[in-house]
Each structure stands twice: as structure tokens, then as C-alpha cells.
């Protein structure tokens, strides 16, 4: 376990939604953050087969390129009726031939796959969002933090908040999707709270407890 002793950190991402959410989470702790996208770092090939492996690949690439600690996120939706798909390939399901990403198309792929499996009832559509944060230092040291939140796939998509698959993810115990929640409702965590709602906030809570708190 290594404490983070600098207040300057690289957000190892080119995903605008992730960069925004991570910035919202680390902002209250006084970090000066820049992103891999802003610094025009090349995106590394995500060749891992787990969220942990891909998070480490991204964080180490930015830490090496910048000479500063870097925080990455690898996340996705894991759907039981689809044998865990799309999982680590969550972003790939949104890719178009021109290299752009269309998450409306990706959500439609999910629904089509569920319909093909006959998963039409709420109890057949269980899933979870997974977020793995990796904090990497230029010397190659890494710390890994995993957060998960259970829910079900809702259809049709609801809400315009958040990004990615948020409009079809209805967390357990809630009537609204992540797409219908504000950032405050979705992340809703601060030091001293027992729990956070979103997968990313849950992973971030572990990061704070491990690397920031004395």
C-alpha cells in the first residue's frame, strides 16, 4: 500500500464522460488534474482480459508518459443472461466502422441479445456495473480498487444524464436509471459515508481510504 503524496495527477483516459466523473470525485480533495486526452497521449492498446489488467495498462502508460502518478478507470456492464457480456468489451459494443462510438447502438445490441435469449422479465435481466480504478506511479508501482453495483437492464432507455449505458442501468432498490440521476445522486459519497451508489464512487472510496487517508 502506497500513499499518494502529490496533489498533481493524470486522469488516464480519453473518454470525456469518465474524465468528467473522475474530476468530480477527486476535485474536493484538492487535486490538480490533467487528462491523457488533454495532453494528447497516445491511447494504449487494451489487450487485457480483465478490468484490472486494462486499468493497469492505461494508468501505467500515462504515468510513464507524464512522469506523474496517473489514475485510470476500466469499467463496463456485466449481464448475467449474456454470460457476462459485454464485460471488458463494453466500449467495443459501441464502436462503429469509422472508429466512433455510438452508445445508443450499443444499448440496442444489448436489448436485441437479451430478447434473443428470451430474457424479457425483470428477474431475467440482472446485471452489474463494474469499475476498476488503477493508480500507477512512474516507477511501475500500482494500486487497484474495484467497485460494483447490482441492478437490472431496463428498456427502453431512460434519461439523458451520465454517459454510456447509464440510461438502461437501473440500480437495485431504485425506480430510476443512472441516466435519470444527477451526478450528486449517482455518486453521492463523501468521507465518513458508509456507502456510495455508483460503481465508480465505490471504487473511489477504496482509493481514498487506501491512498489518501492517514
UniProtKB/TrEMBL annotation:
<dbReference type="InterPro" id="IPR029001">
    <property type="entry name" value="ITPase-like_fam"/>
</dbReference>
<dbReference type="GO" id="GO:0009146">
    <property type="term" value="P:purine nucleoside triphosphate catabolic process"/>
</dbReference>
<feature type="binding site">
    <location>
        <begin position="13"/>
        <end position="18"/>
    </location>
    <ligand>
        <name>substrate</name>
    </ligand>
</feature>
<feature type="binding site">
    <location>
        <position position="45"/>
    </location>
    <ligand>
        <name>Mg(2+)</name>
    </ligand>
</feature>
<feature type="binding site">
    <location>
        <position position="75"/>
    </location>
    <ligand>
        <name>substrate</name>
    </ligand>
</feature>
<dbReference type="GO" id="GO:0005829">
    <property type="term" value="C:cytosol"/>
</dbReference>
<comment type="subunit">
    <text>Homodimer.</text>
</comment>
<feature type="active site" description="Proton acceptor">
    <location>
        <position position="74"/>
    </location>
</feature>
<comment type="similarity">
    <text>Belongs to the HAM1 NTPase family.</text>
</comment>
<feature type="binding site">
    <location>
        <begin position="199"/>
        <end position="200"/>
    </location>
    <ligand>
        <name>substrate</name>
    </ligand>
</feature>
<comment type="function">
    <text>Pyrophosphatase that catalyzes the hydrolysis of nucleoside triphosphates to their monophosphate derivatives, with a high preference for the non-canonical purine nucleotides XTP (xanthosine triphosphate), dITP (deoxyinosine triphosphate) and ITP. Seems to function as a house-cleaning enzyme that removes non-canonical purine nucleotides from the nucleotide pool, thus preventing their incorporation into DNA/RNA and avoiding chromosomal lesions.</text>
</comment>
<dbReference type="GO" id="GO:0036222">
    <property type="term" value="F:XTP diphosphatase activity"/>
</dbReference>
<keyword id="KW-0378">Hydrolase</keyword>
<feature type="binding site">
    <location>
        <begin position="163"/>
        <end position="166"/>
    </location>
    <ligand>
        <name>substrate</name>
    </ligand>
</feature>
<feature type="binding site">
    <location>
        <position position="74"/>
    </location>
    <ligand>
        <name>Mg(2+)</name>
    </ligand>
</feature>
<dbReference type="GO" id="GO:0009117">
    <property type="term" value="P:nucleotide metabolic process"/>
</dbReference>
<dbReference type="GO" id="GO:0046872">
    <property type="term" value="F:metal ion binding"/>
</dbReference>
<dbReference type="InterPro" id="IPR002637">
    <property type="entry name" value="RdgB/HAM1"/>
</dbReference>
<keyword id="KW-0479">Metal-binding</keyword>
<dbReference type="InterPro" id="IPR020922">
    <property type="entry name" value="dITP/XTP_pyrophosphatase"/>
</dbReference>
<dbReference type="GO" id="GO:0035870">
    <property type="term" value="F:dITP diphosphatase activity"/>
</dbReference>
<feature type="binding site">
    <location>
        <position position="186"/>
    </location>
    <ligand>
        <name>substrate</name>
    </ligand>
</feature>
<dbReference type="GO" id="GO:0036220">
    <property type="term" value="F:ITP diphosphatase activity"/>
</dbReference>
<dbReference type="Pfam" id="PF01725">
    <property type="entry name" value="Ham1p_like"/>
</dbReference>
<protein>
    <recommendedName>
        <fullName>dITP/XTP pyrophosphatase</fullName>
        <ecNumber>3.6.1.66</ecNumber>
    </recommendedName>
</protein>
<keyword id="KW-0547">Nucleotide-binding</keyword>
<dbReference type="GO" id="GO:0017111">
    <property type="term" value="F:ribonucleoside triphosphate phosphatase activity"/>
</dbReference>
<dbReference type="GO" id="GO:0000166">
    <property type="term" value="F:nucleotide binding"/>
</dbReference>
<keyword id="KW-0460">Magnesium</keyword>
<keyword id="KW-0546">Nucleotide metabolism</keyword>
Amino acid at each position: 500500500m502506497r500513499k499518494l503524496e502529490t496533489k498533481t495527477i493524470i486522469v488516464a483516459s480519453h473518454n470525456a464522460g469518465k474524465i468528467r466523473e473522475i474530476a468530480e470525485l477527486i476535485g474536493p480533495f484538492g487535486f490538480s488534474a490533467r487528462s491523457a486526452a488533454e495532453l494528447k497521449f497516445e491511447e494504449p492498446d487494451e489487450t487485457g482480459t480483465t478490468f484490472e489488467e486494462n486499468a493497469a495498462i492505461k494508468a501505467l502508460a500515462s504515468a510513464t508518459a507524464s512522469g506523474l502518478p496517473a489514475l485510470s478507470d476500466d469499467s463496463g456492464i456485466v449481464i448475467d443472461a449474456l454470460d457476462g457480456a459485454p464485460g471488458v468489451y463494453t466500449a467495443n459494443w459501441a464502436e462503429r466502422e469509422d472508429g466512433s462510438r455510438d452508445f445508443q447502438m450499443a444499448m440496442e445490441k444489448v436489448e436485441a441479445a437479451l430478447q434473443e435469449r428470451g430474457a424479457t422479465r425483470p428477474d431475467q435481466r440482472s446485471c452489474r456495473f463494474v469499475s476498476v480504478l488503477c493508480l500507477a506511479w512512474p516507477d511501475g508501482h500500482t494500486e487497484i480498487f474495484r467497485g460494483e453495483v447490482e441492478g437490472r437492464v431496463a428498456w427502453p432507455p431512460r434519461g439523458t444524464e451520465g454517459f454510456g449505458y447509464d440510461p438502461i442501468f437501473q440500480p437495485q432498490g431504485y425506480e430510476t436509471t443512472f441516466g435519470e440521476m444527477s451526478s450528486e445522486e449517482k455518486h453521492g459519497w463523501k468521507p465518513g459515508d458508509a456507502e456510495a451508489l455508483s460503481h465508480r464512487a465505490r471504487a473511489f472510496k477504496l482509493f481514498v481510504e487506501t491512498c489518501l487517508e492517514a
